[in-house]
Write a structure and sequence with these properties.
It is found in: Nucleus. With 160 residues, this protein is α+β, with helices and mostly antiparallel strands. The chain has helices at 47-56, 122-131, and strands at 13-16, 28-34, 41-44, 80-82, 95-100, 107-112, 118-119, 149-150. The strands form two sheets. Strands 3-2-1-4-8 form a five-stranded antiparallel beta sheet, covered by helices on one side.
């Protein structure tokens, strides 16, 4: 496994649901971010707050109340993934869904429309917007299928 790259001052991290290889994680269960100043990890309580931090990360790195102890530690007891900074917040009414492949090879991004329909490509989103004039003001550029990268040294050793 490759050594862990430094993430200080980089994009927020996301933790996958479990380290147990018999139970394939299917979603993210904690959103965390690393302080630019003290390097402590902080759990972010909502997806909306996490997306707000992530979309501003490049111009305004996250800084916490550094005197407080870290409320989570980076280690290999769970699988971690790093998200790219600057991804825009999910358009209102839509949900960005991240699904981890059973073999931990990658995370797939998709959007859930307000109607519940799963949208896996920009073409599918364009068709949805065209067929649903209520969402005509939603821009395709507000959607990103860039998915977090799983940090290799936190993948369970016995995953095929």
């Amino acid at each position: 496994m490759a050594p862990r790259k430094s993430t200080r001052g980089k994009a927020p991290m996301e933790q996958l649901a479990t380290k147990n290889p018999r139970v394939a994680p299917r979603s993210i269960n904690k959103y965390t971010v690393q302080c630019e100043k003290c390097s402590k990890w902080r759990v972010i309580s909502t997806v909306e707050e996490y997306e707000e931090i992530r979309c501003k990360m490049e111009e305004s790195p996250y800084v916490c109340a550094c005197d407080d102890p870290a409320n989570i530690e980076y280690n290999a007891t769970r699988t971690w993934a790093i998200d790219r900074p600057g991804i825009l917040k999910t358009p209102e009414g839509f949900t960005r869904s991240l699904e981890v492949r059973r073999d931990f090879s990658r995370i797939d991004a998709k959007y859930i429309a307000p109607t519940g329909k799963k949208l896996r490509t920009l073409n599918e989103i364009a068709v949805f917007i065209e067929e649903n004039p209520t969402y005509k003001d939603v821009k395709l550029s507000d959607f990103s299928f860039t998915s977090p990268k799983i940090i290799e040294d936190t993948i369970p050793e016995d995953v095929n």
